[in-house]
Amino acid sequence: MSSHAGPTGHRPEPDDAEVGRRFAAGEEQALAWAYERFAGQVHGMAVRAFGPGPDAEDVTQQTFISAWTGRAGYRPEQGPLPAWLVGVCRHKIADTWARRDRQRRTAEAAVAQAQSAPATAGPLVDSAVADRVLLLGELDLLGQPQRGIIELAFFEDLTHAQIAARTGLPLGTVKSHIRRTLERLRTRLEVDDAALHA
Amino acid sequence: MPHCTPETLALAALREPLPAVDDAHLAGCARCQAEVASLQRGVDALAVPQLAAPGPAVPPPPAVWSAIAAATGVTATPRPDVVAAAVPAAPVAPPPVPPPPLPPPPAPATVTTLRPRRSRLLLAAAAALVVGAGIGAGAVALGDRDDDGLTVAAAALDPLEESGASGEARVLERGDGTRTLRLDLTAADLEDGFYEVWLIDEAVEDMYSLGVVQGGGEVTLEVPPGVDLTEFPVVDVSVEPLDGDPVHSGVSVARGVLA
Predict the structure, then answer these.
(1) What are phi and psi for residue B158, nearest 5 degrees?
(2) Does domain A142-198 have CATH number 3.40.50.300?
(3) Residue B184 CB: number of other CB atoms within 10 A?
(4) Taking the model in full, what pTM does it have?
(5) Which CATH class is domain B115-257?
(6) Nearest beta carbon to residue A179 from set B7, B63, B129
(7) Given an 8 Å threshold on Cβ–Cβ distance, is A157 in contact with B99?
(8) B95 vs A57: CB contact, 8 Å cut-off?
(9) ipTM here
(10) What DSSP element (H or E) covers A10?
(11) How far is CA B211 from CA B151, B158, B208, B248, in A?
């Protein structure tokens, strides 16, 4: 991320933090800079999830489009722009999984109907697919430092001791935040389950 | 023995190693186990490799920026060299703009029952493609004249999942337009099974089997006429068990992307 001193030597290049502030302010050049610097990371995630091809490209494209149109939701003081873009990308990946899952079930239902198969116990919903969309939304609602802590645990696979070392927070604080966040996610899923079966 | 603390059970849900005393208690306590399981559903949903922090960067093809610019109306542009960095070195047709819609839903299960198994396994390995895409492109000089024709595409094959296997593939085109894939594979000898060579599409969904190769050997395989290598640019080497199943085992040891 540090080497973007391109051949265009005379054009002053702001640092990442400045790009983040200008992005939030809606300066169009900041979208281009953000793409120059972070599209590779975002696309790398998309390719990891879907392999190279149209799905990954769609995720990368939608990530930047949503980030731009939703830039009011980005708060530079809460974290760097690339981390926020990565969060948006997670949503797009989860949304793509959910869309595929819906398509699969629609296709299966159509086949069952065409074959006049007796109705089974309902379409096989991949609950993890739905859970992901729901819980990523719940993560967005977390304040700091809870959000940063659980992201380090989930997405960087750090232990609570490593998180404490990384953040400088006391071990006990990290543990209790992890506990409360996992409870919160559990509650969110229970509420959703209850709504489904109401 | 007292129950584990709520914080400890949360760490157990994250699959962190616990102190021995907690481990011992948890092994025999249904109540604590149930608590861990209930907290784990959220962990299992989100702590998956596909959502993990970014790994290796992959430059998106230029069409991605075009689509973003079109959708947002933004006229500022990234430096052309950055956007163009994703253009393959070889004469590959530029990707279409805008990206095509999602692939159609899978065909009814009665038609292709083997397919879901294959795709799922391969998708898991698709992540490693990223490495190959970066290293493979351009690693072999194109245009070399050979007895068997002109090298029109090449790929360095990089190991998947620390398999230790690696190799080099080049596509040679003869004067009459027919093509061969020459593969030089360095890989451990297999006691059971064999290495099979595939051409796979970028979605890692469809593929052609080209034939069998020995680890530590070079082989020349015919490329089926009419197969578009820009659509099937991934050279994949799998380990196939002696089970008589013609479908890709899902266990790939080396891959590269033709460029």
Answers:
(1) -105, 150
(2) no
(3) 15
(4) 0.59
(5) mainly beta
(6) B7
(7) no
(8) yes
(9) 0.85
(10) none
(11) 20, 19, 9, 12
A135 in contact with B, Cβ within 8 Å: yes
What are the mean pLDDT values of chain A's consecutive 10-residue runs (198 residues total)?
46 87 96 96 95 95 96 90 96 93 83 64 64 94 92 95 94 97 96 78
What residue spans define the domains of chain B?
Answer: 6-47, 115-257
**From B7, B76, B133, residue closest to A28, measured CB to CB:** B76
For CA atoms A103, B44, B204, B108, the dihedral sign is negative
- Mutation target to probe the A interface, by most A beta carbons within 10 A, among B9, B64, B206 is B64
Q: Does the beta-carbon distance from B105 to A106 stay under 8 Å?
A: yes
Q: Are A41 and B57 in contact (CB under 8 A)?
A: yes
Contacts of B108 in chain A (CB under 8 A): 107-108, 111
Domain extent listing, chain A: 12-124, 142-198
Q: What is the CATH number assigned to the segment(s) A12-124?
A: 1.10.1740.10
* Distance separating alpha carbons of residues B45 and B131, to the nearest angstrom: 26
Give, in order, the Cα–Cα distances in Å from B16 to each of A113, A172, A182, B104, B257: 46, 15, 14, 40, 37
